[in-house]
Amino acid sequence: MKLPVLTGTLDLYIGEINRFPLLTAEEEFKLAVQLKKYGNVEAAEKLIVSNLRFVVKIAHEYRSYGFKLADLIQEGNVGLIHAVKKFDPYKGYRLISYAVWWIRAYIQNYLIKSWSIVKIGTTQAQRKLFFKLNQTKKELETLSKKNPEFSEIATSLGVKNSEVAEMDVRMGSRDVSLNEFIKDEGDNAHIDFLTYEGDDQEVSLIKDEEKSLVRRDIAGALAKLNERESYIILNRVMADDPQTLQEIGIKYNISRERARQIEKQALKKIQLALPYFKTDK
Q: What average pLDDT score do residues 174-193 get?
């Protein structure tokens, strides 16, 4: 079985992935056991293709950020593949319940890195504000029937007025890739209307390959963490609504200080695997 690739129109891709039936809990469990015990590649492929439609659904939630849906879906698919590799069928929950965290993490990481040359989300609070600002704006606008003031948004999110104002400016001036199509599924990119003086095709391909290697490095680094460390990274560092150390301590029946130590240890492991990885911790 070959995994579907988004090379044509979105409608064709969605039509293709909808041909794959959803798995029952029993079917999913059997396939996941085959993968975990015997490394069955065919079982892994069936687990992936049966959940591709959920990646499209999740990717749609991020359309308001102005990126091509195809790019968001591709990033989400990478997250799904990683989730399938790490999924433990004996934990008692469905694959998509686990995979949704990885799908969102890869999409959000792509958005943060692609939005601007200047990092838009350098702390957990900024990342949270980045993903909550538009949503909160729309909710307040629906209630009041007018554009909300920064002070109203700040009160709703529990942040300073200046932080909302700064993020609003940064989100309103996103860098645009010259290779980005002017319209989804269009034929003309921004670069087609400029005198080209940049990298040639060969250099561009090399850079794309470097980005692919970085994504694989990140996935490999996360795979080196144990269950508690993975949970903390996923739910504090990579989550748009990060849990507190107190909440994690309650989950694992440990102290807040012990949770902080585990988080620090996990971040060190990632830094060792990824020398270019930076953290504010």
A: 53
Q: Is residue 58 part of a domain?
A: yes
Residue 169 lies in a domain: no
pTM: 0.49
Residue 120 identity: I
- Residues 156 and 152: their CA atoms lie apart, in Å, by 6
Asked if residue 195 is part of any domain, the answer here is no
CA-wise closest residue to 112 among 127, 97, 92, 91? 127
Domain holding 273, by residue range, is 211-281
Note whether residue 164 is domain-resident: no
29-43, 50-64, 220-234: which has the minimum mean pLDDT?
A: 220-234
Number of domains in the chain: 2
User: What residues contact 108, with CB distance under 8 A and at least 6 apart?
Assistant: 62, 127, 131, 238, 240
Q: What is the 3-state secondary structure (H, E, C) of the chain?
A: CCCCCCCCCHHHHHHHHCCCCCCCHHHHHHHHHHHHHHCCHHHHHHHHHCCHHHHHHHHHCCHHHCCCHHHHHHHHHHHHHHHHHHCCHHHCCCHHHHHHHHHHHHHHHHHHHHHCCCCCCCCHHHHHHHHHHHHHHHHHHHHHCCCCCHHHHHHHHCCCHHHHHHHHHHHCCCCCCCCCECCCCCCCEHHHHCCCCCCCHHHHHHHHHHHHHHHHHHHHHHHCCCHHHHHHHHHHHCCCCCCCHHHHHHHHCCCHHHHHHHHHHHHHHHHHHCCCCCCCC
